[in-house]
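Write out this protein's structure.
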Amino acid sequence: MKKLFCSVAALAFMTTTPAAAATYVFTLSSTFGSGSGNLTTVGDASQGFSEITLLSGVFAGGSISLIAPGLYPTGAANDNLFTATAPFFSFNGLSFSANGSNYNLYSNSFNVQLCGVTAGCGLASSTTFSATLAPAVPEPGTWAMMLLGFGMVGFGLRSLRGKVTIKVNYA
């Protein structure tokens, strides 16, 4: 039983890692269309720029697909960096595709702009973007630690129940 307990405890500690990724819910509106979805960053984007690793949602009626950094087809050298406060993106911007078109969402001074390879560039005044931090969901390692803790408390209470010692003094 001790070996099993130690194995489970070791596994729980190995799977716990500090939560660094953050997921944001965003909305986007431009002359090309509007959309919404989720983006996930490597680190805490409230502390500065962090790379976007996952992008999902809908734009102009089509599913959004993230274009890897440096692979935007023309013009921009997208870096897919994001920060939680305006202007949200670096000058190189975030690149994605939807409905057969490629787009680059970037910041020019304090304005967010959207350019499309097959549709030309949108004006800053006609592009709006907003993002809010999504509610946190515990990681699997956190769940394992919590369940292990409840199991240890239950095991401790159960083992205490049967250990009653009665001392009899025959004098």
